[in-house]
Structure formats: structure tokens, C-alpha cells
Design the sequence.
């Protein structure tokens, strides 16, 4: 008995309770909404999502117990593996819905770009940590190269949403590492100048999404349909919402991808502005807690990693809610901890685990 | 941690940047929140409406179309329910494959496919279109067992229009058929678009067309909650349709059948009117067609046959085909002469067998003439010379005015569409009708021909029956009508179609009585006597012959020697009983020869049935050549003009 008790204590000793509370609250909202979004189809995905959550929770516990120094050792191997797998995808990947994102292992398929969401900030944090206090322009150049390789590979698949998230995670590391402002401003200007060029590089469907965002009514039954229907869902939710399981847009199938990328429309229709406010507060708390952990972290590696991961959570939440409510183009980004789906949840919980590890191991480092 | 100060600086910068990021995060979330406030509070009403119109769909429920029954309750048009196999093209996996697959289960003929293709062109992709109608129970069962293989294919119970008496009174009743683009425009002009949302068929001809809005009823509708795929999830509310009104006709189905059968397939028409009310008792156009063919979209070969048949069965001759009335015009001329004071009944003329006008000679058909002829005799023996002179004395303007007053050359306003105006010739009419100046001039010789019902004169049997009815009712003019009453099946309220005279023609009763007696004389001892020999009632009548072509000078008309299509049209107008007329009719048999030969026997059978209940054994016989009723024979000495 004692052994079990110690094991349990040991297991939970590296939890950060505020973070845990916030994540559990978000997951609770996720379960309610996934149930509502899928129950009218005759079979709900509730049990599957509970399993997903349990698995991701275990992964989080494991990561949280791993000290940051150990995590640092995974940086290079994970990044290299990720790049190799992405090249593998480009060469031998399975095409699903017009995108080459998956690698078949025979018994299952994996999506290497998902790995990159963690490997990228890990790698860059490790790199800057390695050259701490001696950072020169060339280090930022090399860091940019480390960042660009996987991004280009993922863009090629094509997967705009994931390359955006990977790019954001890497950029936040470089930004927090102290990329000079004049470079940031210069890059911003260059990006602005490159926009017309980038436009020609985009796939037709990506261009259409941007155009549709600017004027959804231009193609109400085609590309604009998703945005129009999700905005109707949100708007008709009103102040207090139509009530759980009562969303007509949801239950009559007007919302596309209603349990995954567009789940926010379902939530918003049924819980209204009040629910949206609560959701925004939860995400603000999550990000605030993450940034606090980053600020308190003892090493450059853990600071950069914690800060970047936290800001990626923000990108997830902002891009998702922005696209569903029609102020950002439609890119495939789930609402963190709420959208249905195991892979994304595991990735997110690895991030939470890393934050917890950094926070709970800070004293040990100091000693 | 090589340099402590460096490290401290780094940490400061990191914290500054983290703080900056945090502020940016808050700003972004504020933007999102502002967006939510905009959508959920400021635009709430708009988006609620959008969501409601997304989910609620109004499905029209078609009302039952009203029935049509004859004056005695015989059903002439009704509805019955039958199963149809329908395809919604947008929901199928592939139209051709679906139809081919269905053909293995239920019989689908080439004509079904053709009709489907035609309907497909006229409809929208998400409308359901019948591929087969009137499935047998066995076919319904067979499809039900296989229906999982055919997405987008459904069995539907639909109401079909049925005309149980088939060809009987087909032209009067008309038919309904699929709404086309032009019908749609009319419906919109009439402000009926909402009521016709779910209606697929509309009255095209006859009573079905004229009383369309009475028969149609008011559509009901269901508020249905639908999902994004357009499938109905549940019914939110329902408003029942109001069925269309039933029509009770003035038509007597048995009389109609007797009259139709009397024609024995010959081309022609008959209109029988009750002179006391204007009620149409029989309206025959022969040959007829089966209106049932049109109901679920006529098949191509059926249409081809009806439309291109030499006898033109689709044509409603009774109201649309006009012919010179020939000698049936004479009693009306005589009444005109009495009314306008151009003749007294006793005035006599000497008939030498011809009438010279200018350098032309108008012939009577009796060589040597009828001798001394007064008005009565002029009608009984149908003396042309009398009317040549009369026409000349009256002048075309007087004739036109009087005949127009009787109802000729104008629409009778009968309650079915497609009525011809006919031609009442007059100088004004020529002015309107022709373009070239030499054609527009009225020649006084033309007046002479008009006097015996030839020339430009052209009337339908409806118009002739109407005019004679106006005469025997002493100038009371009723609007001829086929519908006696309109019944609302829900409230039981009955509306009568008017039985009031619409105007009064100034006729002296003694003049009318004189004409009636003269026409009775025609039946007793004149050109109608053979057809009416032994009739147990007294009727008045007048035979007539309309020329199909003019004979050249010196030619003698020999009916047998002419091709059928060139033979004269045979007319008979009549009323009975003479003292209290209950029925007036006009019959016309195309290329039937002398009026007494083909038309009068038909009138005899109709009167026999209507007045004594006698049902004839077969079509009316053609009597042998009867003398004394030829058309005008004009000897033209200068070939001035012909017609």
C-alpha cells in the first residue's frame, strides 16, 4: 500500500495546480460541446474523446516528471527525426483530401508535422541556450534556417494551419531570445513586400479562403458557406445562448466540421456571449499562467521553451476563434483542449507537461 | 551563466518581451470579444432571422382540385390517388444509371424516358420529377424492396385528374397539364404565385382553364424544420389546404353523348342552348380527343397523332371554327327587314330565278325561279332571289348593324377560352381587315352575297345558336354559359352563374312570332321536312349550305363529283318546341353537302332525345339529295371578283 501511495504521490508531485485546473475546465467545456455536436448524428464521440483525454493526461504526467535538462537532450534527435519524417512524407506520404500529410506505418498512420509543433521550440530553445550570452547575428540566421526547413516542408503538403503553428512556435523562441527590433521591423517590411509574391505561391483553395474571408457572400454556397453558417450560429446565440443541445445550426448540420475545427461555433451558439466570455477568460488565465512560469524559469532554455509554448496556445485559440467568427481566414487549427481529436490533444498536453516540468523543477536547478 | 550581468540583462529583456507578448495577447482577445459582442448583441436579430430561415422551410400542400359534374350529377372530371415513381436528380448518384437500374425493377418505356427528359429540362435540379406514373401494387412492392439502391428515388402518392367519360365533351371540359413558363407568368400577373408554389398542373383548355382559380383551391402549407441537406426533420405547424370549388354544368351528359354520336365521326360542331337562360346544353366538336392523355404529360406519339391528324381533333370547332352560315342567315335577314321596316311580311316579289345587279347575274338555285314569293315562302323554300333584293334594299350598313345587335360577329363571352369573333362583313370591317386600298373598298355587289349568308360572313355554331336563341327569346340576350353553379365543398355554399339577361334587343314580338312560324313551316313543308318527318313535337328550323368554293360560270354544282374536302358545309339551325322553345341549336357538318342532307338529321336526334327521351340507335343518317337549298350561284360576266 505504501509503495502505491508513494508512487501516486510521486506521479502527481510535478503537477501545477492552477494550470491543471484551467486545462480541466477547458476539457470539461470540450466534452460538453463534443457531445452536443455529435449526439444528433446518432452516435456521440464522447467516450472516444474521454479516452483521448485520459491518454493525453498520462502523457502530460510523464512529461511533467521529466526534468528540463532531460527534455533538452531530446531537442536535436526529435528535430532531426521530425525533419526526416517530413521528407519521408513528401516522398512517400499518403494523400488524404488533396493533402500529403500522413505517413503510413502499415498498421497506423502518423502525422509528422504534429511532432514538429513540439520539436521546433525545443530545438530552437536548445540552440539559443547553447550559445547563451554570445548570441550574434549569425546565430539568428542559423535559427531562421532551422525554422524554415520544416515550415517549407509542411507548406508543401500543403497544410497552412500547421505550418503557421510551427512557424509561430519557432518565431516566438527567436523573438523571446532577443531578436533585435530593427530586424523584426525589417522582416515585417520584407514580409509586407513579399505578400504579392506569396499570393502567387498559395494554392487555389488557400487563395479562395482569403478572398472568401474578405467577402463571404461572394460564394455563399461554396467557400463562403462555412464562414456564413458559423457566423450565423455565433450571432444567433445572442447573450446567453440557445442552451446546451439546443443549437439549431448545430443539430441541423448547418455547421461544417462541427466537432473539430468549428466546435467554437457550436459552443457559441449554445452558450452565447456569456460562454464566449468564460472561454476567453480561461484562455487568458492559461496564457497568463504560462507566461508567469516562463518569467520565473531559471534557465534560458526553459524560459524560451515555456514562453514559446504558451504563446502557441494563444495562436491556437486566437486563430481558431478568429476564423470561426469570420475575422481570420479558414485554416485548419483546432480550438485547444475543446476540439475533438486525439493527436492535437496529445501535442497540447505535451506542451502543458513541459510547462509543468519547467515550473516544478525550477527549485532543483537553483539548488 | 558566464557573465552574471549579461545574464541579468538577458532576463530583463526576456521579461520585457514576455510582458509585451502578454499585452498583445490581451489586445487580440479584446478584438475577439468585440467581434462576439458585435455578432451576438448588435447583430443578434439579423442572425436569429438567418438561423430561423435556415431551419424552417415552408412546404406547400396542394389542395384537391374541384370536380366537374353535368347538370344531373354525372361526373366529368375528378381526382384519384395513384403512386408515382419520382426522381430528385440532385440526390441521385447518376441520373442515367439510376434510370437504368429502375428499369430492371419497374417497367420504364422509351416514352417514359422521353417525357422525363422533357420535364427535366423544365424543372430545377432539386425538384422531384416523375419517371413512371400509376404504378401497380406489385411494382410498388418491388421497388420498396430495392429502394436502398436508389438514393433520390421515391414513391409518392399523387392525385391525378381523371376524365371518366373520356372523350365526352372533351372540348368543353378541356384538360389540365403541366405548368409551363407562360402559365407561370400568368399566375404571377394574377397574383397567385404563392398559391401555386406546390401546384404542378393547370387548366390549359376549356372549363379547366376558364375556371382555373375556382377549381384550384387554396394551398395549405407545413412549416417544416429542415437540416442542411434539405431533409425534413419534423413538422412545426400545419395549415390545411382549402379544396377547389366544384362545378355543376348546364351540360347534359346524355344529350351531349347523343349529339356527339349523331355525328358518327364526321367533322363538324353543334351548339345547343336553352334560350330561356343561355345555358349551354350540348357543345360538340367532332372528332374529339381523350383529355386523359394530357394529364401526366402527353406522350410524344399521342401528341403527334392528335396534332397532325387531318381532322384536327384538338380544334374546338363549336367556338373557334367559323363558316359562312348560308341560308340559315335568311330568317335573321327577314327579321331584320321586318324590324327595320324594309319589308312587310305580305310584300311579294316575282322570282325569275335570278337577280341582275349591274352587269352581274345572281342565280337562284331553282332554275326558272320560285314564282311569286312572300316572306314566309322565302324562308320555307329558301328563295335566294328574295334575299338578293332584300339585301340590296337594306344596304350593308343596316344589315351589319342589325346582325351585330343579334350577337353575330362579336364574342358571346361563353365561359371557355378561345372563342372566335367571327366575321360580320361591313365596310368598316373591310377597312380594318385589309391593307391595300383596292381591297378595302366595299363593293355593293358584295352586299348581295351577304344577303344569303355567303360572302365574307363567317360564324361559329355557338354564334348562330346564340343569335337564334336571342331571336326566339324575343330579344332577351343571355350570356351563353356552361357552368350552372359553383359549389364550395367546405361550406356547401352554392353560387349560381348568372341566369339574367345581359341586354335586350329591340324586337317586336309579332315579328319574332312570324319568323318562328315561318321556320316551323320549313320543318313542316320545306327543306327540313324530310329529316323531321313524324316528329311528335313542333320545331322550327332552317337549313343552310356554306360554299367551300365558287363555281365558275356555266358549271353546275354536283356534290358527288367533288372531292369530299371541296363539298359544301352543311348547316342547320333550329329550335323546339315552337311555342315555348326549350332548346335552340346550330349544327354544322364540314363538307356535309346540303344542310338538309347531313346537319338536319343530327338536329332531329338531339331534339328527339331532349324532348321525348328517345335515344337513337346510331349516328344520324344522311338523307338523300334534297333540292332547294343550294348556295349562291353567281354568274360573273366580267370576272370582277370572286370569293
Sequence:
Amino acid at each position: 500500500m505504501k509503495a502505491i501511495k508513494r508512487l501516486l504521490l510521486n506521479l502527481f508531485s510535478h503537477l501545477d495546480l492552477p494550470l491543471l485546473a484551467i486545462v480541466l475546465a477547458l476539457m470539461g467545456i470540450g466534452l460538453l460541446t463534443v457531445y452536443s455536436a455529435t449526439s444528433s448524428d446518432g452516435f456521440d464521440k464522447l467516450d472516444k474523446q474521454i479516452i483521448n483525454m485520459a491518454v493525453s493526461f498520462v502523457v502530460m504526467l510523464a512529461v511533467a516528471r521529466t526534468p528540463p535538462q532531460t527534455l533538452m537532450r531530446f531537442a536535436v534527435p526529435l528535430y532531426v527525426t521530425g525533419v526526416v519524417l517530413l521528407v519521408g512524407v513528401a516522398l512517400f506520404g499518403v494523400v488524404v483530401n488533396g493533402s500529403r500529410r500522413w505517413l503510413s506505418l502499415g498498421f497506423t498512420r502518423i502525422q509528422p508535422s504534429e511532432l514538429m509543433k513540439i520539436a521546433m521550440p525545443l530545438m530552437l530553445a536548445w540552440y539559443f541556450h547553447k550559445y547563451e550570452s554570445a548570441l550574434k547575428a549569425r546565430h539568428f540566421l542559423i535559427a531562421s534556417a532551422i525554422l524554415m526547413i520544416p515550415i517549407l516542408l509542411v507548406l508543401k503538403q500543403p497544410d497552412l494551419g500547421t505550418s503557421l503553428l510551427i512557424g509561430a512556435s519557432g518565431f516566438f523562441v527567436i523573438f523571446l531570445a532577443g531578436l533585435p527590433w530593427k530586424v523584426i521591423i525589417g522582416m515585417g517590411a520584407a514580409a509586407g513586400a513579399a505578400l504579392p509574391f506569396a499570393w502567387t505561391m498559395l494554392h487555389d483553395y488557400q487563395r479562395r479562403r482569403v478572398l472568401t474571408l474578405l467577402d463571404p457572400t461572394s460564394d455563399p454556397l461554396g467557400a463562403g458557406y462555412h464562414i456564413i453558417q458559423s457566423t450565423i450560429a455565433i450571432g444567433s446565440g445572442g447573450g446567453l445562448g440557445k442552451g446546451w443541445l439546443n443549437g439549431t445550426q448545430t443539430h441541423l448540420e448547418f455547421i461544417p466540421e462541427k466537432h473539430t475545427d468549428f466546435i467554437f461555433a457550436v459552443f457559441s451558439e449554445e452558450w452565447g456571449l456569456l460562454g464566449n466570455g468564460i472561454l476567453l477568460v480561461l484562455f487568458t488565465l492559461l496564457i497568463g499562467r504560462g507566461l508567469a512560469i516562463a518569467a520565473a524559469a531559471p534557465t534560458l532554455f526553459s524560459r524560451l521553451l515555456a514562453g514559446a509554448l504558451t504563446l502557441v496556445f494563444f495562436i491556437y485559440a486566437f486563430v481558431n476563434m478568429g476564423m470561426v467568427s469570420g475575422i481570420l481566414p479558414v485554416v485548419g487549427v483546432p480550438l485547444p483542449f475543446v476540439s475533438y481529436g486525439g493527436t492535437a490533444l496529445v501535442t497540447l498536453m505535451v506542451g502543458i507537461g513541459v510547462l509543468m516540468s519547467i515550473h516544478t523543477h525550477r527549485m532543483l536547478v537553483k539548488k | 551563466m558566464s557573465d552574471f550581468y549579461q545574464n541579468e540583462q538577458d532576463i530583463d529583456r526576456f521579461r520585457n518581451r514576455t510582458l509585451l507578448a502578454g499585452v498583445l495577447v490581451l489586445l487580440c482577445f479584446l478584438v475577439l470579444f468585440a467581434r462576439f459582442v458585435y455578432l451576438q448583441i448588435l447583430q443578434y436579430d439579423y442572425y436569429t432571422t438567418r438561423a430561423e430561415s435556415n431551419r424552417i422551410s415552408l412546404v406547400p400542400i396542394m389542395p384537391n382540385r374541384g370536380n366537374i359534374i353535368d347538370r344531373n350529377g354525372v361526373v366529368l372530371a375528378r381526382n384519384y390517388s395513384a403512386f408515382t415513381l419520382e426522381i430528385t436528380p440532385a440526390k441521385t448518384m447518376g441520373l442515367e444509371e439510376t434510370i437504368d437500374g429502375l428499369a430492371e425493377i419497374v417497367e420504364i418505356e422509351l416514352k417514359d424516358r422521353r417525357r422525363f427528359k422533357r420535364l427535366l429540362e423544365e424543372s430545377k435540379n432539386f425538384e422531384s420529377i416523375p419517371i413512371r406514373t400509376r404504378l401497380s401494387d406489385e411494382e410498388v412492392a418491388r421497388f420498396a424492396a430495392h429502394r436502398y439502391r436508389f438514393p433520390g428515388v421515391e414513391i409518392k402518392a399523387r392525385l391525378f385528374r381523371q376524365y371518366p367519360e373520356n372523350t365526352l365533351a372533351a372540348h368543353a371540359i378541356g384538360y389540365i397539364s403541366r405548368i409551363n413558363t407562360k402559365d407561370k407568368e400568368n399566375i404571377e400577373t394574377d397574383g397567385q404565385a404563392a398559391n401555386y408554389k406546390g401546384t404542378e398542373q393547370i387548366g390549359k383548355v376549356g372549363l379547366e382553364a376558364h375556371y382555373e382559380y375556382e377549381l384550384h383551391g387554396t394551398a395549405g402549407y407545413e412549416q417544416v424544420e429542415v437540416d442542411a441537406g434539405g431533409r425534413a426533420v419534423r413538422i412545426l405547424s400545419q395549415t390545411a389546404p382549402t379544396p377547389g370549388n366544384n362545378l355543376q354544368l348546364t351540360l347534359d351528359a346524355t344529350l351531349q353523348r347523343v349529339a356527339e354520336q349523331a355525328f358518327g365521326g364526321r367533322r363538324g360542331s353543334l351548339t345547343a342552348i336553352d334560350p330561356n337562360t343561355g345555358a349551354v346544353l350540348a357543345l360538340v366538336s367532332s372528332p374529339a380527343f381523350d383529355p386523359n392523355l394530357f394529364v401526366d404529360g402527353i406522350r410524344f406519339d399521342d401528341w403527334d397523332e392528335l396534332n397532325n391528324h387531318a381532322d384536327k381533333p384538338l380544334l374546338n370547332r363549336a367556338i373557334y371554327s367559323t363558316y359562312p352560315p348560308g341560308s340559315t342567315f335568311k330568317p335573321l335577314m327577314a327579321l331584320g327587314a321586318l324590324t327595320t321596316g324594309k319589308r312587310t311580311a305580305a310584300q311579294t316579289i316575282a322570282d325569275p330565278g335570278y337577280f341582275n345587279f349591274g352587269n352581274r347575274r345572281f342565280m337562284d338555285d331553282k332554275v326558272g325561279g320560285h314564282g311569286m314569293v312572300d316572306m314566309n315562302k322565302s324562308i320555307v323554300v329558301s328563295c335566294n332571289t328574295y334575299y338578293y333584293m332584300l339585301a340590296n334594299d337594306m344596304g350593308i350598313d343596316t344589315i351589319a348593324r342589325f346582325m351585330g345587335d343579334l350577337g353575330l360577329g362579336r364574342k358571346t363571352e361563353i365561359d371557355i377560352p378561345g372563342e372566335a369573333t367571327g366575321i360580320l362583313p361591313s365596310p368598316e370591317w373591310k377597312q380594318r381587315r385589309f391593307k391595300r386600298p383596292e381591297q378595302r373598298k366595299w363593293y355593293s355587289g358584295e352586299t348581295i352575297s351577304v344577303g344569303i349568308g355567303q360572302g365574307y360572313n363567317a360564324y361559329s355554331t355557338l354564334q348562330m345558336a346564340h343569335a337564334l336563341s336571342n331571336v326566339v327569346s324575343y330579344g332577351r340576350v343571355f350570356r351563353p354559359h356552361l357552368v350552372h353553379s359553383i359549389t364550395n365543398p367546405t361550406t356547401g355554399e352554392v353560387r349560381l352563374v348568372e341566369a339574367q339577361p345581359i341586354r335586350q334587343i329591340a324586337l317586336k314580338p309579332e315579328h319574332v312570332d312570324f319568323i318562328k312560324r315561318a321556320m316551323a313551316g320549313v320543318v313542316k313543308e320545306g327543306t327540313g321536312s324530310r329529316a323531321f318527318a313524324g316528329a311528335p313535337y313542333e320545331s322550327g328550323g332552317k337549313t343552310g349550305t356554306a360554299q367551300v368554293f365558287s363555281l365558275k360560270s356555266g358549271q353546275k354544282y354536283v356534290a358527288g363529283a367533288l372531292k369530299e374536302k371541296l363539298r359544301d358545309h352543311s348547316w342547320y339551325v333550329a329550335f323546339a318546341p315552337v311555342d315555348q322553345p326549350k332548346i335552340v341549336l346550330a349544327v354544322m357538318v364540314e363538307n356535309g353537302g346540303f344542310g338538309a342532307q347531313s346537319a338536319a338529321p343530327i338536329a332531329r336526334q338531339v331534339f328527339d332525345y331532349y324532348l321525348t327521351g328517345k335515344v337513337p340507335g346510331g349516328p344520324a343518317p344522311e338523307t338523300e339529295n334534297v333540292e332547294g337549298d343550294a348556295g349562291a350561284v353567281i354568274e360573273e360576266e366580267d370576272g370582277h371578283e370572286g370569293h
DSSP finds 15 helices and three strands in chain A.
